[in-house]
């Protein structure tokens, strides 16, 4: 059994605890022996309270320490660790591996998904991006990751950064386009609900078609009559600017084909 | 039974034929008596070939004619109709009701979804936006729409235009953000597959949270360190420009709260 400790009690830490708990019911690869949380009671609904600690010197000997704290606290946490030469990884999409304190063997265990505290996630579908400094550590990370997910990838820090930037486009920016859709609906007293099946289908299409194949609409068709009428319709300067830039980009993209 | 004729044989026409066929198995509200297709054989896999015609003077007497042809042919089709004072609607998100030929009673039957010929759609989940010039016609449209969908709305031409513009943001522009995500992955040799669960979750979150509540990421957090590092990372001018504009918009939006 691989002994694992989680440090942190936020969204990612909580989803990892649940994922390891579920995995332990199925197979005996990983044993989650301890979780560090500044506020111990935060995790009592998820794990046996005797396993939750809030002092660094209480940390047990383990094969893997997963630090799932806010990006700007990762370094501080690694500096608080009193032991040396153990395998210590973080869960961040943007923190480079070589900025971790080097008293321990370093690695990354990045689950590429957007987690919220109140939403369940099927962790078996969450891609986990792994990085380590040596092959033996990679084997440990790989076994731990595969115990909770069907989708495990070796990703170096530069690739992880690319994924993190790409995730901003497909998640944060996409959500902001939903926000604009919502604003346009509110301005004209139509329920945003009407757009929801379209939002679902747009995301589902991409599971089977490439985005290039899935692209439709007035910009793709270079339908200048519709584009001009939409531009005349948009009274919000911000909506109009974004409409113009994305329309132009789709048209330029079409020309590249 | 309400007698319906469809004019057109593209994506929307074909999905409507299937939807009416399914509805007729359940209840006897609507009878699809005829379909007009310039190329008759295009529809033989979907409907009894005796019901498919390609001459306007073969059109039977019906309670409702649904014109599902390309936007720039709608007017031409209405002008080809030899009868008068019957209920004639189109399926377009952007064509105004009063630009239809006025020899017949006019209306709109706009299914707000993105249809592709090779993808099945559960029509019961497709919102249908209805408009008519009088209340009696609205009752007919409403009964026909409800026979195939659980989601039927009275939407005037101005609201329909708002929905169409909003649909461009949540569908066409969102798909283009997927395209950028894909390009960033390709440039750094990571599989776009890794982002797909995130794309799914981003769309699903919006079913239960407002876009404002669902917004996360460096722009929302005003995390200037991450934003600057992403901007330095993006070598493609077009990606960078879109990154900057959407980041700024999300930050400005946060300030409005
Ligand atoms: N959320 C996501 O969607 C997501 C996805 C992939 C990766 N990640 C990454 O996963 C990591 C954790 O993110 P999260 O979303 O779980 O964050 P979160 O929900 O905001 O939770 C942050 C956690 O960090 C702890 N913490 C902060 N400063 C600390 C310190 N100095 N010492 C000890 N603990 C400290 C907090 O403890 P208190 O509760 O005591 O304040 C809290 O448990 C980050 O690196 C993030 O980039 C997040
Ligand atoms: N696709 C969508 O996602 C969607 C969603 C909502 C609403 N709509 C609206 O639904 C309508 C149809 O769109 P679509 O996607 O089904 O289009 P489509 O797949 O491109 O098919 C267009 C159809 O129009 C026919 N047509 C074109 N010019 C014609 C003419 N002069 N006379 C007779 N038939 C003519 C074509 O016949 P041939 O096969 O003989 O060329 C074809 O059957 C449009 O108003 C569109 O805005 C589309």
TrEMBL record, chains A, B:
Coiled coil: none
Every DUF2520 domain range: 126-249
Pfam families (UniProt xref): DUF2520, Rossmann-like
Gene3D superfamilies, A to Z: NAD(P)-binding Rossmann-like Domain, ProC-like, C-terminal domain
All copies of domain Putative oxidoreductase/dehydrogenase Rossmann-like, residue ranges: 2-108
InterPro entries: 6-PGluconate_DH-like_C_sf, DUF2520, NAD(P)-bd_dom_sf, OxRdtase/DH_put_Rossmann_dom, TM1727-like_C_sf
Identification of the protein by name: Rossmann-like domain-containing protein
Organism: Flavobacterium segetis
Biological classification of the source: Bacteria, Pseudomonadati, Bacteroidota, Flavobacteriia, Flavobacteriales
